[in-house]
Write a structure and sequence with these properties.
The complex is a heterodimer of chains A (about 240) and B (about 325). Chain A has about 240 residues and is of the alpha/beta class. Chain A is about 40% helix and about 25% strand. In chain A, strands 6-7-8-3-9-10 form a 6-stranded mixed sheet, sandwiched between helices. The radius of gyration of chain B is 29 Å and the shape is extended. Classes of the chains: A alpha/beta (about 240), B alpha+beta (about 325). The interface between A and B is medium-sized, with 29 and 21 residues. The structure holds adenosine-5'-triphosphate and magnesium ion (MG). Chain A: Keywords: ATP-binding, Nucleotide-binding, Transport.
């Protein structure tokens, strides 16, 4: 479903060169849930943003369903419609109601009729548990509600893959659960997911595979059992000792 | 606890200051012995025009019938035709049976006409409106070009903005009319509106650029991550939010434009300012006319700011 080959992203700022992503190769199979963990600044966000082309990378390849997004001939908008993304800061459209947030891209990108788009949107709002807020503006919702709308907005495009970049990091603790519940449900339904998170409980419970990144590289990769009980690498052990 | 301050002493102070200032101006004017002729001003807003009604050929008056305020004069012309003229009853110049020669006046019709102050105001309004619409379009395009990642595109916009903002509008109007207008054989209105639009466009471009850049980057990323193209994301997500934010500076710019439009009077466009000058040459009511002209500009600009204020509140519903 997703295959990355030697992805390198270099930021140059004020003379200094940061290899934010330094040769990352991995795969995410259909229906698999891959959780990416790692210390702050290790390049997790940059990497996941490379996967849908929000960040252009310097070298390497990212294949989505076999299509190389580094290829100039690839229509990136078409790929992105298949890859949903959920951001730390929700990024809902503040000038649109909740329902419009869900229908806008359906209509403009998927070219769906208004009735079909509305129906899909309402179905998803029910699924994430905020059907009654459809005509509110985002600013009137709590953080947890906003993030659930953001998930529903991405799902409305019927994506093949969902990317999550620290979806619960900007939330008050009491709202983390409601968002994680929606994500767990998605995982159970067989959605292919790549999740950057600091929620170790989620990783342990839901992940099929865990990637540990540090300094732009994948340091260790394995099942949650392996990861949380017998990590091989010293850096992984150190990191887990700090967060657990 | 701080007690809420009473407002009325300050209102009183304000009134006193204004009255003192007005009295000061009044006193100074008194000293230079200026003769105020306010009664002369109204006719420059609206006046009664008396149009003479003339017979198209020789003939005889058959009948003069007065009904209410109008008189119907029936004339038998030499070619055998009979024609009826309607004039104001008080202005009838002919009697029954009178012989008329071609071009004789049988009476007058009075109509209310717009005086130069109002026609000048209309000119000012439409020139400003046309320049605003054009300037908004130019500014939007130039603003988008300025944030373009393409070097050539963004530099072109930057050069345009720099040139316009670095030269006086008056000089730009002269160049537009005497140089560009001569080369391309442009009408003075086209030159005037064009110069104003280009001028406003440069400022609008900066406002638009700042407005777009004030929208958090996450908005564009969210839109793009849903598969929207750059133009779709711009028109659906970024610009609607940016426009709401730039409405106050934008309206300030258009209010300035109305005032700046007075400069087109230098290329002989009869706007409100030029009308004022023309009236003064024939009446010498210098003080009155300039005060009235200033008041007219003030009324238009305040109405516009009121309207924008109303719009802003309407748009605030999603906050
Ligand atoms: N736009 C940018 N310009 C320059 N450097 C950047 C940019 N974005 C990220 N970086 C740098 O790249 C490195 C990786 O950043 P990234 O945001 O991917 O880390 P992260 O693992 O997501 O961290 P966190 O857990 O804090 O979100 C950091 O050193 C960061 O300073
Ligand atoms: Mg991050």
């Amino acid at each position: 479903m997703i295959r990355t080959e030697n992805v390198v992203k270099i930021f140059t700022g004020r003379g200094a060169e940061v290899r934010a992503v330094d040769g990352v190769s991995t795969t995410v199979d259909k229906g698999e849930v891959v959780v990416v963990i790692g210390p702050s600044g290790s390049g997790k966000s940059t990497f996941i943003r490379c996967v849908n082309g929000l960040e252009s990378f310097d070298s390497g390849h990212v294949y989505i369903d076999g299509v190389d997004i580094a290829d100039r001939k690839t229509n990136i908008n078409k790929i992105r419609a298949e890859v949903g993304m959920v951001f730390q800061q929700f990024n809902l459209f503040p000038h649109r109601t909740v329902l419009e947030n869900l229908t806008l891209a359906q209509r403009k990108v998927r070219k769906r009729k208004k009735t079909a788009a509305d129906e899909k949107a309402r179905m998803l709002l029910r699924k994430v548990g905020i059907a009654e807020k459809e005509s509110e503006y985002p600013s009137r919702l709590s953080g947890g509600q906003q993030q659930r709308v953001a998930i529903a907005r991405a799902l409305a495009m019927d994506p093949k893959v969902m990317l999550f970049d620290e979806p619960t990091s900007a939330l008050d603790p009491e709202m983390v659960g409601e968002v994680l519940d929606v994500m767990k449900q998605l995982a159970r339904e067989g959605m292919t997911m790549m999740v950057v998170t600091h929620e170790m409980g989620f990783a342990r419970e839901v992940a099929d595979r865990v990637l540990f990144m540090d300094m732009g590289k994948i340091v260790e990769e394995g099942t949650p059992e392996h990861f949380f009980t017998a990590p091989r690498e010293e850096r992984t052990q150190l990191f887990l000792k700090q967060v657990l | 606890m701080k007690v809420a301050q009473k407002l009325w002493p300050w209102q009183l102070l304000l009134a006193v200051i204004l009255i003192v200032m007005a009295a000061g101006i009044y006193g100074s004017v008194k000293r230079i012995d200026y003769e105020w002729r306010w009664y002369r001003v109204p006719q420059y807003f609206l006046y009664k025009a008396e149009d003479p009604i003339k017979v198209p050929d020789d003939g005889t008056v058959e009948e003069v019938a007065t009904a209410g305020g109008t008189a119907k004069i029936t004339v038998n012309l030499v070619d055998g035709n009979r024609q009826v003229f309607e004039v104001d009853a008080t202005t009838v110049r002919v009697d029954q049976g009178e012989e008329l020669f071609i071009g004789d006046t049988v009476g007058y019709v009075t109509t209310w006409s717009l005086g130069p102050l109002l026609t000048g105001l209309v000119t000012t309004l439409w020139i400003s409106a046309a320049a605003s619409v054009l300037g908004l379009a130019i500014g939007l395009i130039a603003g988008l070009m300025k944030i373009s990642r393409n070097y050539t595109v963004s530099m072109l916009a930057a050069i345009y903005v720099e040139i316009i903002r670095g030269t006086p509008l008056l000089v730009q109007i002269f160049i537009a009319y005497f140089f560009i207008g001569t080369v391309f054989n442009l009408d003075r209105n086209v030159a005037g509106i064009g110069a104003l639009a280009l001028f406003a466009g440069a400022y609008v471009a900066e406002i638009v650029r700042a407005g777009i850049q004030s929208i958090p980057k996450g908005q564009m990323e969210a839109a793009r991550s849903l598969g929207m193209s750059l133009p779709q994301a711009m028109t659906e997500i970024i610009l609607p939010q940016a426009l709401k934010r730039i409405l106050p500076p934008l309206s300030g710019q258009f209010i300035s434009l109305i005032k700046d439009s007075s400069l087109v009077s230098v290329i002989a466009i009869t706007d409100l300012t030029k009308s004022g000058r023309e009236i003064i040459t024939s009446t010498f009511a210098t003080f009155e006319i300039w005060l009235v002209v200033a008041a007219m500009y003030l009324i238009v600009t305040s109405l516009l700011s009121q309207f924008v204020f109303y719009l802003e509140r309407r748009l605030a519903i999603s906050d």
